[in-house]
Structure of Hydroxyacid dehydrogenase:
Amino acid sequence: MAELLMMGPLLPALVARMKARYRVHHWWEVADKAAFLADRGAAIRGIVTSGRFGATREVIESLPALEAIVSFGVGYDPIDMEAARAHGVVVTNTPGVLDECVADTALALMLAVSRRVCELDRFVRAGRWRGESPALGRKLGGRRCGILGLGNIGWQIARRAEAFGMDIAYHNRRPRQDLPLHYRYCEDVTALARASDVLVLSLPGGAGTRRLVDARVIEALGPDGILINVSRGSVVDEDALVCALREGRLAGAGLDVFENEPEVPAALQGMDQVVLLPHVGSSTVETRQAMADLFMANLDGWFETRRPLTPVA
Ligand code: 8YV
């Protein structure tokens, strides 16, 4: 039985599947990590983790027999890829199977913010309907949807936003040649924000995109603009976002991800024009099952045939 180090608690059903075939150690529960590594470190051949727990250089370098890092989720920004490459460790993720659900979450947030769904739900529950008129929402149709990061998830967001009658613009490092001609390419992030009423973030996290959405981008989105983030909290300057929302320089935000999850700035929690979700972009029964299946196919693929299904390029 190959030995694996699990960095944080993964889905119980997935852990049960792993434990039927591997000996799995729970890293987060190990009190004396040095003693554990001295005892089991040389036997561990795989790290199992997620886009949340990742794998640090320190852990990678403390496992001399490490062959593979198998991750649950498409984003692998908290995995030290440089260390993995340097040590010849293969890294896998779960792309493709969650695009539709993450896009659905983006649309749910767009609708919730622009039509004030959560705010009006609170209005009804507080018994305010009898004495007051509910606030007006804004229509999505006819407004401009800017997508920062038009990859597989961004494409699903674009299709859905189009179905709501929105005009689509996007920014990637390079324009894509395979998109409908009426999708407008913007040369940089600020230009995209200026060309958007709703700016949706669906790009990878990591050093290359850290705080890409800063005070200047938020300013360009403007006082009628809405920011939607289903990618990583690290992409947004959270202080600048809070400041703009507080001062009415941005109309609203729908956020599934945050800089220091599960911490969410108290200022955001007090704002009616903001909808907050606990990083559930891909969290449906169907998609979690598909992610778990792909995760296991990668894990078994590596340890049985050295051929994982979806290694990170
Ligand atoms: C997961 C995600 O919830 O796929 C990703 O990158 O952020 C989510 O689908 C996460 O990886 C699990 O912690």
